[in-house]
Structure formats: structure tokens, C-alpha cells
Amino acid sequence: MTQSDVAWRGHDDPGRIDRALIEIGQSGMEAQGASITAAYATAWSLDASDAWRTRTVDISAHGAGWMRSLALIRDENDHWTAVTQMHGDADLPPAGLADPGSVDGALDCDIALCPATNTMPIRRLGLLNGNVQETSLVMAWIEVPSLRVFRSDQVYAASMPGRVRFRSASGDFHAELTVDSDGIVIDYPGLATRFGRP
User: Fold this and answer.
1) pLDDT lower than 50: segments of the chain
2) Contact between residue 191 and residue 115 where contact means Cβ atoms under 8 Å apart
3) H/E stretch holding 165
């Protein structure tokens, strides 16, 4: 098992700092992390030790006068359930599954603005060595700071070692990610760049 302590600074918001402690084993990963912005902070943990498929993700968000939390769980039939708590007035949509059946079949969670959650599909699809054709995936995408969960159709591919092409299925977003030998994002154009220790 390898352990990486990584941090990213936002491109879209240079004041946003994300940090994650990622433990990678032979068949998956577990991770804990946090994000701090001027308006809110989040803390999360995930278990993707089932062949790089997300088992659970727990995330909380806190702002001035409010907090909310989400526990998202995938069962053996790839059905997702959510448990939420909300306190205070955040003027945000309710946390939880916006359309519960829409994310059935998803194998991954994707925490918005969080580069750590790209690692699971990168490793599961074998993208580290390059030369992998486009593969379509369904994600349980977690909006922050609302913690509302949507279906997100995404496409991953790799053309060369250390580079992963990622786009939305609709084609309205695309990026080429630079990743390290563990599949952890170094640079995500438009979102964040890793800093500190490599």
C-alpha cells in the first residue's frame, strides 16, 4: 500500500485549497480530504477499495450559520442511497439524491472541484499506460457546497503515459489531466494544480 499526502490550489479560485490523504492498495483506495474557500469548507472521506469502485462517501460542508452532511452508499447492485442532515439557512438546494434512480449503475462518486475523485476511474480503466480508447461512465456527481447529487455522464481516455483525456458526454466540457504514477492528478486545467511535495 502506498500513501500520498497531496494538496491542490484552485485555478478558478486561487483561494481554494484542497488537501487529501490517499491510501492506494492493489485493488482500490481509501481517502480523506478537505477543501477551504472564502465562503465555505468541506471535509470528506471515501472508500473505493472494491476494485476501484466507490463503496461509500461521507462529506460535510460548513459555512457561516449553516452546515450539512451527506452519506452516500452504493450497494452490490450498484444502487445508491443517501442520508443527509441540514442545519441553518444556507440558501442552497437540499442535499441528497436529486433523482435517486438516475445514478443507478454508477460505480464512482465525483466530488465537484475535487481532483482526488478522478483517480478511481483512471486506475480502474488502466489509463496510466496510455493508448486506451474512450470509455463512457456514469458518475454520482456531488455538487458543492449544496451536497446535492446528480447523474453525470463522462468519458475517459488516455493517449500517452501520464496524460488522461476527460470530457462530459455532451461535449460541453473537456480537459487533459496530468497524473502521477499512482493516477493522482497533478494538473487539471481550469480547476486546480498540485503544489508542495510531488
Assistant:
1) 198
2) yes
3) strand 163-168
Cut 0.70: pTM above it: yes
| Domain count across the chain | 1
pLDDT, tens digit, 9 for 90 and up, residues 147-194: 999 999 999 999 889 999 999 998 788 999 999 999 999 999 999 999
Nearest to 157, CA basis, from 189, 182, 129, 138: 129
User: In whole angstroms, how far apart are CA 140 and each of 30, 35, 46, 66?
Assistant: 17, 19, 13, 24
DSSP 8-state code for residue 106: -
User: How many CB atoms sit inside 10 A of residue 76's CB?
Assistant: 7
Domain range for 139 is 2-195
Cα separation, 145 vs 92, in Å, equals: 8
Distance between terminal CA atoms of the chain?
18
Take residue 190 and report the three cell numbers written for it: 481550469
Cell numbers describing residue 90 = 444556507
